[in-house]
């Protein structure tokens, strides 16, 4: 059973500052899928406020639509609104623990934690993401940075090495990061804590 905020009231109770369209009147001719598809279209075109407005409308029609919370969490991370990002990711994991892209939820919540400076929580989420899906690019790299900034350079090197082995196209980049860790070259150890987007072609099928 979901604590405190039910799915139906998630947009208002869970996310007090959710971005909503100016006109909340719903057209009977627009379906949840149409709102969601338009939101995804805006998301992939980086029109994030428009995307959030469409996601809001879609959730008013179906507040149990788990995928929308994933996209809304991603959007809030990219906009720098970390409290709302956490709220969406946390709610999604309670609403649907077996969410097919749970590994991406943990990975992107990890990046949200890292952006907030909570590297321990970030490492835990990156680790859970890897357990759920062992072959996702970027997760080990992000965990490597989190380990480094947590004061664990050897763990960081191990993550960068693993990323290089699994994704050979990143080999040179990872070797540079390893060298920077070994030489304690802070100028080369910088990251924006990127999140992992779902596959656009796959996600836009049927839209």
Report on the structure:
TPR repeats lie at residues 66-99, 103-136. With 207 residues, the protein is mainly α. It has a domain at 1-100: Serine Threonine Protein Phosphatase 5, Tetratricopeptide repeat (Alpha Horseshoe). The protein is 63% helix and 0% strand. The chain has 11 helices and no strands. The chain is elongated and about 60 Å long.
What's this, in brief?
The protein has 207 residues and is mainly alpha-helical.
Q: How would you describe this structure in keywords?
A:
single chain, Serine Threonine Protein Phosphatase 5, Tetratricopeptide repeat, 11 helices, 0% strand, mainly alpha, 63% helix, disordered N terminus, 207 residues
CATH class designation of the domain at 1-100: Mainly Alpha
For the record, what is the CATH homologous superfamily label of the domain at 1-100? Tetratricopeptide repeat domain
CATH architecture of the domain at 1-100: Alpha Horseshoe
Count every helix, treating DSSP H or I runs of 4 or more residues as helices. Answer: 11
Rounded to the nearest angstrom, the radius of gyration is 18 Å
Q: What characteristic shape results from the CA principal axes?
A: elongated
Keywords: Repeat, TPR repeat
Protein name: Tetratricopeptide repeat protein
InterPro entries: TPR-like_helical_dom_sf, TPR_rpt, Ycf3
TPR repeats: 66-99, 103-136
């Amino acid at each position: 059973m979901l604590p405190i905020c039910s799915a139906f009231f998630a947009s208002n109770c869970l996310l007090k500052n959710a971005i909503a369209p100016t006109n909340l009147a719903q057209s009977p001719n627009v379906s949840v899928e149409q709102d969601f598809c338009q939101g995804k279209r805006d998301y992939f075109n980086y029109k994030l406020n428009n995307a959030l407005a469409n996601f809001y409308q879609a959730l008013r029609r179906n507040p149990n639509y788990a995928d929308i919370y994933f996209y809304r969490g991603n959007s809030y991370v990219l906009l720098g609104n970390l409290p709302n990002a956490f709220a969406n990711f946390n709610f999604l994991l309670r609403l649907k623990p077996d969410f097919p892209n749970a590994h991406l939820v943990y990975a992107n919540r990890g990046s949200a934690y890292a952006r907030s400076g909570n590297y321990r929580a970030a490492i835990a989420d990156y680790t859970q993401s890897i357990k759920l899906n062992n072959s996702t690019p970027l997760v080990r790299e992000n965990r490597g940075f989190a380990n480094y900034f947590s004061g664990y350079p050897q763990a960081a090197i191990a993550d960068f090495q693993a990323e290089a082995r699994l994704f050979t196209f990143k080999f040179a980049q990872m070797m540079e990061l390893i060298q920077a860790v070994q030489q304690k070259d802070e100028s080369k150890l910088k990251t924006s804590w990127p999140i992992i987007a779902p596959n656009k072609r796959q996600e836009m099928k049927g839209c």
